[in-house]
Amino acid sequence: MDSVERLFRAFPNPESDEAATRELGGSDGRFRKFTVRLENFLQTTSNDPDHAFLKKHAQVAVFGDYCQDPQYFRSKILQLALSKTEIPNDGSAKSNQLRYHRWIGQGRKDSDRPFLPIPSASQGSSSLAHLPAHLMNTQTCATCGSGDAFACTGCLVTLDPGHAIFKTVYCSKECQAAHWPQHKTSCAARKMIGRAAFLLRDLFVLFQDVNYCSNMAQFREKDGVMYVFHKGHDEQAFRGTPLIRAFPRGLTPAEDDYYACVTVGRSGDSLNELKPVIEFFLKATFCPQIEEIQVDPRNVHRPMVEIIEQATQYSMLKTQFMLRVRLRSGEEVAIDLAGTQFGWQEPVGPWAAWETQRVYGQVQSSPIGFSSAQFQQKLEDPTRTAPWHKKVTRFRQGQTKRMLGAIVDTIKKQQPGTDLSIAKFLKLRDYKSPADEVLRAARQALEAGVAEIEASKVMRLYWSATQMGLQYQATDTKEQAKHVPEKV
């Protein structure tokens, strides 16, 4: 048997053991077995045209910089699958794995599954940019079950006139009145959670836009996959470029592209950096339970690939972080602040519909603040976090406090003579104008923070000679910045 086919046969067959294939060594035991397989493969020869590619990356996975990352070799299988114009369905293990990984890389769309059954609940002709209408729009009277005639305006939340997110319908005023004792606990809460989720999503996008810390150069789309290219840190260090600056909006004139590029890979940040803002809007008001959820995304409208120097990061191989909240009525709601990277337009929806259409595999849940605590622990580890990266993170944490202060002050001004009430703010009849004012105040606060570091010339990247050789450093003072070249 050819060594390439033997390698792919050593992996669990996704047709029979998909969960194990998804891990490809995720647990300690499987990781050791995975490494042994690659070590054995390095000793082989083959006439397979992909042997050299696989052997090169097996070497890196076993002995190189990624030897502790079982996802590295899996990402290379995915890369190989996406690079092929056609993958023959010849029944071989290689064919199965490549078709399976291409399906993952192109968004795990139910309609394109290579050999797995399509969940019946997710079938439908609706756009993948939306949750399917049959999962979202109730079509029968909530009281008697007959055909609907009108929707309750108190809890109707829409993305646009033709797409409802929350909807309760009745066939008559009599049925609506009869149902009110059961409906009143969820009616206002749906409106508030809808407004809060949209505002939090817009605040998150704004935060990433103003405090952008990557170095995007260009993007392009191929076969339904968006590739985002970033410049390396070398150029930033030679130019003394600020580590924080505005997102290069001119590179993404289309709104969908902008939302995708500014949030790609940032779902964890939405929970870590915006935790105080999330809790301000949700925890103390109408959501007695808030959970952090980690999932593998499914039915992704626009899968993303980030290329940073020699590293390639696939959004489809990353965990998606989001929230699951329980309203006082007992209804569970999904809130996804970074779903725009996948082309998902709703930041909120019923949890049952969300899980049915957009969650792949099992859901991992934890109390809110869990990922933030882990992130903070990692930040304090000098072996895992570079000093200049710590400075960026500390600054962004300070920006969150600035933004929250501006939000609180703005909402207080809109409620003169009363105690601060988030619920009252979210129930305002003329809500759009106050919400826009909150966004304007948040932007001003964030831009003021960035202006301060630009004027002081701190947090500019430069090269520094150390015992370990040349390393990246970030300026701490204006005096230090005088010795950093601004253009080479």
TrEMBL record:
PROSITE patterns per UniProt: ZF_MYND_2
Protein name listed in UniProt: MYND-type domain-containing protein
Stored InterPro entries: Znf_MYND
Keywords for this protein: Metal-binding, Zinc, Zinc-finger
Pfam families from the UniProt entry: zf-MYND
Organism for this UniProt entry: Apiospora hydei
Residue ranges annotated for the MYND-type domain, each copy included: 141-187
